[in-house]
Amino acid sequence: MRAPEPLRGLRVVAAPTVLDALPWPGGVVALRLAPDDLFALGAAGTELVGALVEEEAGFVGWWFTPAELHDHVLEHIDWPLPAARPALAQGLVAGVPARLWLTADRVLLFTAAAYAHELIDRLP
Amino acid sequence: MSAAGHFTLDGTRLPYEPGDTVAVALLRAGEHPMYGGTLCLAGDCGNCVAEVDGIAYVRTCQTPGREGLAVNRHPPTGPPPWHEPAERHFAVRRGQADLVVIGAGDAGRAAAAEAERRGRAVTLLDAGQETEVVAIYAGPTLIARTPEGMLHLRAREFVLATGAAEIQPVCPGNRLAGLLTARAAQQLHAAGVDLGVAVAVGEPPAGVPCTPIHGDLVRFEGIGSVAAVVTSERGTERTTPCDTVILDLGRAPRDHLSRMATGLPVTVVGSAAVTFPLPPAPTGGIVCGCAGIGVDALESVWARGFNELELVKRASLVGTGTCQGAACMPHVRAWIADRTGQAPEPFTARPASRQITLGEASADTHLDAFRRTSLHDEHLAAGAQMDRFGGWWRPWHYGDHLAEYRAVREGVSLGDVSTLGKFVVSGPNALEFLQGLYPTDVSTIRVGRSRYALLLNERGHVIDDGMICREGEDRFVLTFTTGGAGNAEMWMRDWIETWGLDVLLLDRTMSLAAINVTGPRAGELLARLGLAEQPKFLQHLRGQVAGVPCHVMRLSFTGEASFELHHPVDRSVELWRALLAAGADLGIRPHGLQALFALRLEKGHVIIGMDTELDTTPRRLGMDWAVNMEKPYFVGREALLRTATLPDRRRLVGLTMPGPAPMEGTPILSDGSVIGHVTSSFGSPTLGQAVMLGWLKRAPFPEQVAVDGRIATVSAPPFYDPEGLRARA
Fold this sequence. Notes:
A: alpha+beta, B: alpha+beta, FAD/NAD(P)-binding domain, 32% strand
């Protein structure tokens, strides 16, 4: 498994309705980690009233094509992937806590940087 | 018929014929896979297991004969010999299905056809087609063994059509060879195996030459192999000489899988769903052939009060052997019913229902994932011996823990404390939340200040500790122990929801790294790297160190002036290297946990989980000062109020004694009796004696105790710098 790339952005914690209403500029990928927790990949410098906003540098990830995902990752996932696209899925990948951002033409596998070595060791 | 090939049994070459399983070939040769016991040849019992090609407990009745196969019978007593397993990769295929039917007999095929008519997508699995389902887990997910490896199949629903097993005889002599169930006899007859003089107890199997015998089964007679069967009719026993006894004693559902699938979307059909009558309660003989448990053993445990099926199982081990109760369950239930008047429900089954190897069981499973800090490679490059602590890899030492200790006490040292739990709490109710969460009065922590705090559960027991740093009127940074961070998050979220508070909580544990710069020259080092304004003891501020944005917390776990630099994980290596470079002339070196544990012990600081127990209260730790009972409410307050008036015979105390430090865990004795144990110990070079923390669990607490055969003195910590002047310097 190749080295991951760092993923930088903003971590935004707020009431779900606040997060629902947030507009993000083009190029920012809003990854909803929990109803009240959002990782805005590629975002910077935003301040929001009523929200807890922190710079986030704790994630790393790998971009795959759907075919690469199928060949290298899927056999290490024993839970069903969502059918809809785009979708964020979370669970163990090869026994490592990880997340998948699934779009029609590419997939981001990402995890906490602290776990990256485990995925590198465990995935082909 | 000519032999299709040969295999070996206990080193002797034996032929097998086309279609033979190993068991059939053995019986054809006049051998028995286990020397004795009734054979079902259907995979239900454990009476044909042997070592096959180095793997023990293989069902020879389910193992096709193959050229060169090495079959060795298990020893009559004791476990089979251990063989170092060959390194082998077991592949795992994962799949998803709509409806899975397990068992391709009549009932299974009918269920599959009906489901397909209803538009379901059906997957039909059968052991006869080399897909042997061995377990069902939540999901629901089944685990099956196939020639290509293990199959993990998740489905919306399962239908179990696993049929019924034949009842085995339980009476004296039932471990002899020459006993067959009716279906086994049919199978052997069809394979051309000579059964000799065969008699049948119960309904004789169609097409098998045998003599029916009437009456109730009493015992089998013979030495090694059956020579006669004794039956009873109208009070008269009759002995019938024979070579083979064929037994049709009834059926029992083959329900392993359904018994392990309780609560899952599983439907049972066919014979597997039938409630068959139980056999007569056994009065003698071996009930559980797999584990060699006799009726006398059941009577023994029953007499000692184990009067339920699950208790009988645990106490006698009946049903815990190779067949997991398939053969003995009906008899044990009948035996209990005979005593209680009611047949108990069958006991729960647990995976696996069939013997699988450890390789198969662990196929494609992984060890727990252990986190690395962003400084992991720096530690390795510095010669660190890494070890696992609280879910992280951490440096235990860098080759000389005493040199690391001295660097802290005399100069400056770095510790990687990135693993600490780190949380941000904000929102309109943040203060109210923390007031409820912690036993300290959080409202008195001023902005820019911090405080050590215990975390208690509702019983007033200490579950974690850490720092509360106030950054604003409604913004706080909290730290927790490395091992406690995960639980702390759940704990906090649970209380926020329970109290219905408007609080925002963010776990920064893996987003922020932290380096502890500690030692009398720590401030000097930080000043060199641009931190001109430095926090005083128990203050914190935001600043830049070597150009890296840091949240600088001034505290002390080591007993020396300490600055924790919390910073983004992707800047950690840069900061670490800058600190080491700038401190080279100060003798800087990193310290590992071994040194840290010693340093904090000299200060008497406890480590939650190491020095504490599950029911440790602040009082037992001598840390009442960390609890403000004037607060109207906090988690654990009611329990502390109630227990405050009760006598308490437990104290964590400091201990000192001359000489080397004893091992942690060493018993503490008083008047020759064990009254506690040592939780932490260190031979302090600074103090010239061993210092310890340990539990005393008998009041009144003595002033002197015996540890490791020496006299130790109970001494209130801290042992080092009791006024705390160095930490505040």
